[in-house]
């Protein structure tokens, strides 16, 4: 990365920096260039998959999750 480009980005107001980061990220996503998960993220995904495989009936439907969230937001 060009140091001057980074230096210029750092001079932007925070809101503009966030907008720039979002635009760059969205461009990567649009091109399907999302980075692979980190080692820690992959370990967590593996842990969750193993837990699901060990207990496949221990799930909630989307409707149940939505209802629970709505109930919690009303409190």
Could you describe the 3D structure shown?
The protein is mainly α. It is built from four helices and no strands. The protein has one domain (3-73). 71% of the residues lie in helices and 0% in strands. It comes from Duganella levis. This is Addiction module component. InterPro entries: CHP02574_addiction_mod (IPR013406).
Uncertain residue ranges: none
Give me the Rg, rounded.
Answer: 20 Å
Secondary-structure class: mainly alpha
In total, the number of strands is 0
SSE string, helices as H and strands as E:
HHHH
What is the beta-strand fraction? under 5%
Number of domains: 1
Mean pLDDT: 94
End-to-end span in angstroms? Answer: 48 Å
| Global shape | extended
Biggest sheet layout: none
Total DSSP helices: 4
Query: How much helical structure, as a percent, in the residues?
Result: over 70%
Pfam family, one: Unstab_antitox
InterPro entries: CHP02574_addiction_mod
Protein name: Addiction module component
Organism: Duganella levis
């Amino acid at each position: 990365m060009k140091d001057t480009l980074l230096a210029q980005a750092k001079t932007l107001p925070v809101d503009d920096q966030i907008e720039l980061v979002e635009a760059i990220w969205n461009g990567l996503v649009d091109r399907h260039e999302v980075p692979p998960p980190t080692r820690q993220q992959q370990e967590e995904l593996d842990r969750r998959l193993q837990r699901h495989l060990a207990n496949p009936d221990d799930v909630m439907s989307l409707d149940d999750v939505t209802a629970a969230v709505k109930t919690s937001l009303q409190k």
